[in-house]
């Protein structure tokens, strides 16, 4: 919607926003959540097993689920909408497979991250969240959640921590003027904007690699199925979780800083799978988390991603001459035609913005 008068012009957007909080269930609630995780995982795998004969339409699976509850009474202890949501997730996985956005769905394992979704009849208080058949669970609200709740997703990590993601309706106001920026995402410097703003790459995985190698070496020496192997697996999982949390915190802060300054961001669309074939740079490229950074920018602001068949860092911004003999060691670009000289990453961000606007 667009509201105008003689003094201002403002766009009002209605979007979805998610808030993630840490929850602390007691022993009885942990047991109920474990039963719900197992029931939802069983329904998902059961529907995937039926797909071997023919494509399982969600409506047919929902009708067969009623008969399955009579065979397995333990499924009745789980909230019915949680089981229906598992069938919806299976249907979405098949749709993504048919549209060639993902691979064929796999069976879910107990050792992986567990999650269930409550689509309705949920609420929050100052210190607790309310779920059907589980009642109140203690929650730490480190920031407010004042919008209308659409759904809640409970997640259990590999380190036995529980989180809730609350999906809400969010209304945001944006000014009518458009501020656009071109960003070049790299390895040495994480992101460089065309207005000289830079974000250094913290390289959390490289800093934690020494401890990870040591703990993973200890894990490989433990006896299979022993209690010591289970304890050591938690140690390795905590190290990986710490690196993941550090990355997410850095990406959220960086994307929020950019979204508060600009409205449209222009990025270069790269073939990351092809770039990962370079074994010398594969670990550094995966450590950047370019895909998650783009996803965060997409729901915080407008993203314009462009395909470019010409190298943005090897093209002169002044005369558009391509310098083919430029290597990764050359961090400053010197044009042999117009004698234009500038930082390589900064010039790439300017080229990306110029190609996106033209």
Features of the shown structure:
disordered N terminus, 358 residues, single chain, five-stranded mixed beta sheet, alpha+beta, 2 domains, 25% strand, 15 strands, eight-stranded antiparallel beta sheet
Chain-wise SSE layout:
Elements: E1 2-4, E2 9-24, H1 27-50, H2 58-71, H3 80-98, E3 114-118, E4 123-124, E5 128-131, E6 135-140, E7 149-156, E8 162-175, E9 180-185, E10 189-193, E11 198-200, H4 204-221, H5 227-261, E12 264-269, H6 272-275, H7 282-288, H8 290-300, E13 302-307, E14 332-334, E15 341-343, H9 344-357
Parallel strand pairs: 9-12, 12-13
Antiparallel strand pairs: 1-2, 2-6, 2-8, 3-7, 4-5, 5-6, 7-8, 9-10, 10-11, 14-15
Descriptive overview:
Strands 1, 2, 3, 4, 5, 6, 7 and 8 form an 8-stranded antiparallel beta sheet that branches. A 5-stranded mixed beta sheet has the order 11-10-9-12-13, with helices on both faces. It has a two-stranded antiparallel ribbon with strand order 14-15. The two termini are 28 Å apart. The protein has helices at 27-50, 58-71, 80-98, 204-221, 227-261, 272-275, 282-288, 290-300, 344-357; strands at residues 2-4, 9-24, 114-118, 123-124, 128-131, 135-140, 149-156, 162-175, 180-185, 189-193, 198-200, 264-269, 302-307, 332-334, 341-343. The protein is globular and about 80 Å long. It has 2 domains: 13-173, no CATH class; 180-357, no CATH class. It is built from 9 helices and 15 strands. Strand 7 and strand 8 form a beta hairpin.
